[in-house]
């Protein structure tokens, strides 16, 4: 899929350039597209290198959190809930532990730990699968919760916003938290409806009430501000929570008797590797998107969408962020490139850039997660997994746009 999308960007851009150079009488568009490709390639490397320090810092902190056992503690807290949501998984089965540990790692933003834990969880669930090539109910629920997983610390989005000079990189924290929570709940409800899960259970309702109370507390801390100060209040609450998380990670490591400095250095070393590893993906997608925009093809698409919403009487300021929304379900690197391109075109603190950042931080890449997780255990028939994952993505995009208008417009 990604191969076709990437190739399509270049082919459509090429045709658009030919049209404008011959019929449109604008031969300079061809030179502009080539120049855009050179600039995007250079920018890709600058972005990756600029992220190195921030990645080192957060990966170092996450290493401390992992060694301090925070993942295990969160897994222990979530285990009773997943025993209800996955009734076909026997009590005490290894899958319960691996599933909860994976989701706990996702909540903490521990990408490096979350992926191998997710693959282990899928393999553990596969041991209970009577039809190995077809996804079970538990595997589908696990995958949908992964694609729409609530991320308490959307560090990557903050890093990119800081890299591009955002006044308050964490100003989108509360909007992301609201969006990812609603998207996750939507995915869960869709799966529960199809699988006929009993959500009116005391344990499930207790967890739901706890989540609602937490979200209510967070939103209440922001909503009391005047409309024009919502973004400022969100930034304050977001930064305060991030600073609290940093201190909690450090104190948890110290309390466990961990050499927090040594653990931090060990994790920070991964930051450089991650940053360098990003370069090929950023070059591939940013160049493709830059050429696509320089050819005028993207403007044609966005103007068409804007005209449609204007005809419906809706505000169209969010339209430039739609490429990120469309790409998010297909490709993580593609969506990241779209977000960066929107930031570069409109400014990091512009409304479209903020909408794109909220979308980027509120869900995972559905098709990628489905391909990797199901592919790792040989599942070819995903049943309703893809439909439920895409439904959660759609809800998250709609909520992201609404919340962005609420906070920043």
What can you tell me about this protein's structure?
- With 409 residues, this protein is mainly α.
- It has one domain (2-408).
- The protein is 77% helix and 0% strand.
- The protein contains 18 helices and no strands.
- The chain has helices at 2-22, 28-50, 52-67, 70-85, 94-107, 111-126, 137-147, 155-163, 173-195, 202-223, 230-255, 260-294, 297-311, 322-328, 332-346, 351-361, 366-375, 385-408.
- α3 crosses α12 (260-294) and α16 packs antiparallel against α18.
- The chain is globular and about 70 Å long.
- The two termini are 35 Å apart.
Give the structure's gist in a few sentences.
By secondary structure, this protein is mainly α.
